[in-house]
Design a protein that fits this description.
- By secondary structure, the protein is of the alpha+beta class.
- Helix content is 40%, strand content 19%.
- It contains 13 helices and 16 strands.
- β12 (377-379) and β13 (385-386) form a beta hairpin.
- The longest helix is centred in the first third of the chain and has 38 residues, at 28-65.
- The chain binds one RNA strand of 90 nucleotides through residues 40, 43-44, 46-48, 50-51, 53-54, 56-62, 64-65, 72-73, 75-80, 82-83, 254, 256, 379, 383, 385.
RNA sequence: GGAGAGGUGGCUGAGUGGUUUAAGGCACACGCCUGGAAAGCGUGCGUACCCUAACAGGUAUCGAGGGUUCGAAUCCCUCCCUCUCCGCCA
């Protein structure tokens, strides 16, 4: 959420920077400012009336104490009418606040000045690459072929259980998934300074609003209810990312400056309805309704936000480097960034079987956009209450990492080579071909 | 799900309709005192919004939302959360 006072004083800049997202959001600014002016005028007026009522009520109290009941009764008459006017105006003020909040919650974050202008992913500059695409003296297979041949995934039965887009990992596949999760958590907690948390996998709508999922992406979430009790529908949602619970851990709190920075990492499954994306889904594991992910979250002082963003990207890159996977780092342009983000780096890993790069990580600094939505603050050393920067990044998404890993490290005999750092977790140096 | 007890500022803790303008204490900040410190004494000290060039001023806020009243931390209703016990349950 943007700061209404900042918008009030920087209306032109707000419009310009919203316009740079090429989403037409800047058109909402004028009506927002009108509501703001109306709200403040009403508030000033009704607060004067309340001050008056308060003063007279106090007089009535004093008169009652002195047993002057007639005089008190006369004053009650005048304040009764005052109370009716106040109630009416309170309703108007609340209406204006509700309308203003609805617009504020619908506006995306402003892009940072270092974000390049653009309208689609075609305009995202490549920042750097690491390694080279794997070369083969045979034709590399798709992960679908590999997973079926090695019985890593039972696609048909996964679909039987839950529909298309749900995966049943089996045997070495299930074991590899588990090994990757633990490898990632150990890396980030032992080497990168994150505190591991294991959050709920369902969250309240307030948490979804806090990170900016709601109100814009209601359709993307799975809403749950208790049994057949429809009245409980909408009280909890399956998390689309661990960012939803973990970024909200300190919602509504006032942290101390010495508490910062806070680094969390968490494993969770991620549930995405992908409404409207029917038919876009590719065969296999690349676009699914449920996948595992290890997420990194940072809560930092505003002056450290961008330094910490770079560090977080490096943390995610380390995963791919240790696994020997070629990747590139992309800076998202203004038109391609997520709703809550001010600046986002994507990391795309090379999948030789696909002949394409797959997004396995997205690291964003949301600045104070989310912390304002969730009323998360910290008291600075000079006593001011400030909104910290909130950063989130995948470290990394698992299904696509699984794809890149088996496609990159497939051998001519059909087995999968396991990179050294992962071996203690898998308990093997390769996934063998079936006998 | 049932019964009971609770929810007051950073913490603690009073307050059952009207100088409560939320007492007192702790913590914190500043000052006095001291060779220095502690103790003691004094002053200040929540949050959000409105207004103002600034100082000042105003409104709201006692888990949340409604209601009664001239006036609600206090009375009524609904909901949320915590604790104790019971039931069910991995």
């Amino acid at each position: 959420m943007l700061d209404i006072r900042w918008i009030r004083e920087h209306a032109d800049e707000a419009k310009q920077r919203l316009a740079s997202r090429h989403g037409g959001e800047e058109e909402k600014v004028d009506s927002l400012l009108e509501l703001d002016a109306k709200r403040r005028a009403l508030l000033t007026e009704v607060e004067q009336l309340k001050a008056e009522r308060k003063a007279v009520s106090k007089e009535i109290g004093a008169l009652m104490a002195k047993q002057c009941h007639e005089e008190a009764a006369a004053r009650k008459e005048t304040t009764r009418e005052l109370g009716d006017r106040i109630a009416a105006m309170d309703r108007e003020v609340n209406q204006a606040i509700a309308e203003q909040d609805a617009i504020l919650l619908s506006l995306p974050n402003l892009p940072h000045s270092s974000v390049p202008d653009g309208t689609s992913e075609a305009d995202n500059p490549e920042i750097r690459t690491w390694g080279e695409p794997a070369s083969f003296d045979f034709t590399p297979q798709s992960h679908v072929t590999l997973a079926e041949r090695l019985s890593l995934i039972d696609f048909a039965r996964g679909a039987k259980l839950s529909g298309s887009g749900f995966l049943l990992y089996t045997g070495w596949g299930a074991r590899l998934e588990r090994a990757l999760i633990q490898f990632l958590l150990d890396l980030h907690t032992r080497e990168h300074g994150y505190v591991e948390v294991s959050p709920p996998f369902v969250v309240s709508p307030e948490c979804m609003t806090g990170v900016g999922q709601f109100p814009k992406f209601y359709d993307q979430a799975y809403a749950v209810q208790e049994g057949q009790d429809g009245s409980t529908l909408g009280k909890l949602y399956l998390i689309p990312t661990a960012e939803a619970p973990v970024a909200n851990i300190h919602r509504e709190e006032l942290l101390k400056e010495e508490d910062l920075p806070v680094f969390y990492c968490a494993y969770s499954p991620c549930f995405r309805a992908e409404a409207g994306a029917a038919g876009v889904g590719t065969r296999g594991m690349i676009r699914v309704h449920q996948f595992d992910k290890v997420e990194m979250i940072k809560i930092v002082r505003p002056d450290e936000g961008y330094r910490e963003l770079d560090a977080m990207v490096a943390n995610a890159e380390k995963v791919l480097q240790l696994l020997g996977l070629h990747y590139r780092v992309i800076l998202l342009c203004t038109g391609d960034m997520g709703f809550a983000s001010a600046k986002t780096f994507d990391i795309e890993v090379w999948a030789p079987g696909q002949g394409s790069y797959l997004e396995v990580s997205s690291c964003s600094n949301c600045e104070d956009f989310q912390s304002r939505r969730m009323n998360l603050r910290f008291k600075s050393s000079d006593g001011k209450n400030l909104h910290p920067h909130l950063l989130n990044g995948s470290g990394t998404a698992l299904a696509r990492l699984f794809v890149a890993l088996i496609e990159t490290h497939q051998q001519s005999d059909g087995s999968i080579f396991i990179p050294e750092p992962l071996r203690p977790y898998l308990g093997a140096d390769s996934i063998p071909t079936p006998a």
